[in-house]
Write a structure and sequence with these properties.
single chain; 7-stranded mixed sheet; 5-stranded mixed sheet; Rossmann fold; alpha/beta
Length: 424
């Protein structure tokens, strides 16, 4: 299907439609020039590649992979690679656009990209995943690179996958290129503090929001939907500041205890059993029940469209901090606004990951590495400044935080487009 069709006629309830709706609203809010608006609605480049892979039984399977590059006006593209059986090109394009805004809202010199391979990594061996990853990298070798597009982990990809990408790209170039990816092992030039960065950045924004709203951290109730890397770290780090984690969930279900759940022990339980369900002293709940819990802070840290028109009426949180990308549909956002829920949007709340990825890229280019304390201090400075800038926009314009974050981000990208001009 052509890109133009995807931008106009494809799933009206899908993530790309949501991303375009958000851009439309920001364009109206800031009075965006129409020529720039038309440029920002479309990705710079979308690649679809075949990924033939030899399986362990000797058969050949041909997977489909994507890489969308939305914008490069502020710098090289940046964005994750996802391995998932239900991924499609439309959502890859949406996530690439969101990455552009995410990088701009925290004011780091990147544009947005995203990639994916349609596969089920849970049903593949490590050898099959490695061979698929290396072939996928080979298909993308002309469009990625430290000065072009720097991939990172996403759903069902991890530091090992990044190591395979880095090695394959380096073999093609004939020398080691650690800065081609971020989120890689520390032994290959990865950054200290990267694993916890998205969750840590989310916690910084929650802390600042609670200050602005006059809420006490001590004893505040928190529910986490999606107890993976982002949700798990956010829960652990928040708990250190005083709140209590009353519920957590993953793809298999959830657990609930109104008196609090020790986050570190829950992480260990999930590592042993593969699920948060069945943690001692908790009641089993569903993901939908978790979203409806009365709590001070709800962290949707799973997949897109978790909060939608069909369930938003049940949401009872005072603050929603979007650990996942696109967890709230535009229709649900309107209802949340009417309910007075303070939403910290994804492009701000989960920007800690790309911020420390930027630190990793800088360290790789300089071959000079920072301590974990330095990483965390710089992350806090950037996240707090970004929150303050978005909150000021929110207060000045009288709009919700998502519209304010988009206004800040789109305004910065638009300025870069104006200054650079259109070539030729």
């Amino acid at each position: 299907m052509a890109t133009e069709e995807l931008l106009t006629d494809e799933n009206p309830d899908g993530p790309l439609a949501a991303a375009l709706t958000q851009l439309d609203e920001a364009a109206r809010l800031i009075g965006l020039d129409d020529a720039v608006y038309q440029k920002l609605r479309k990705p710079k480049r979308v690649m679809t590649v075949s990924v033939p892979t030899r399986m362990d039984d000797g058969t050949l399977r041909v997977f489909t992979g994507y890489r969308a590059q939305h914008n490069m006006d502020r710098g090289p593209c940046k964005g994750g690679i996802r391995y998932h059986p239900d991924v499609n090109v439309e959502e890859v394009m949406a996530r690439a656009m969101w990455m552009t805004w995410k990088c701009a809202v925290v004011n780091i010199p990147y544009g947005g990209a995203n990639g994916a391979v349609i596969c089920n990594p849970k049903e593949m061996s490590e050898g099959e995943l490695e061979r698929m990853t290396r072939r996928f990298t080979t298909e993308l070798v002309e469009v990625i690179g430290p000065e072009k597009d720097i991939p990172a982990p996403d759903v069902y990809t991890n530091p090992q996958v990044m190591a395979w990408i880095m090695d394959t790209y380096s073999m093609q170039k004939g020398y080691s290129v650690p800065a081609v990816v971020t989120g890689k092992p520390v032994a290959l030039g990865g950054s200290l503090g990267r694993e916890a960065a998205t969750g840590r950045g989310c916690v910084f924004t929650i802390r600042e929001a609670m200050k602005r709203l006059g809420m006490r951290m001590e004893g505040a109730s928190v529910a986490v939907q999606g107890f993976g890397n982002v949700g798990g770290w956010a829960a652990r780090l928040l708990q250190e500041l005083g709140p209590k984690i009353i519920a957590a969930s993953d793809s298999t279900g959830g657990c609930f205890n109104p008196d609090g759940i020790p986050a570190e022990e829950l992480v260990a339980h999930k590592a042993r059993s593969g699920t948060v369900v069945g943690f001692p002293g908790t009641d089993e709940i569903t993901n939908e029940e978790l979203l409806a819990l009365e709590c001070d802070v709800l962290i949707p840290a799973a997949l897109e469209n978790a909060i939608h028109a069909g369930n938003v009426a049940n949401v009872s949180a005072r603050i929603i901090a979007e650990g996942a990308n696109g967890p709230t549909t535009p229709a649900a956002q309107e209802v949340l606004n009417d309910k007075g829920v303070f939403v910290i949007p994804d492009i701000l709340a989960n920007a800690g990951g790309v911020t420390v990825s930027y630190f990793e890229w800088v360290q790789g280019l300089q071959a000079y590495f920072w301590s974990e304390d330095e990483v965390n201090e710089q992350l806090e400075e950037i996240m707090v400044r970004a929150f303050d800038e978005v909150y000021a926009e929110h207060a000045e314009r009288g709009c919700d935080m998502r519209a304010a974050a988009m206004a800040v981000a789109v305004g910065r990208v638009a300025e870069a487009v104006h200054v650079r001009g259109i070539y030729p």
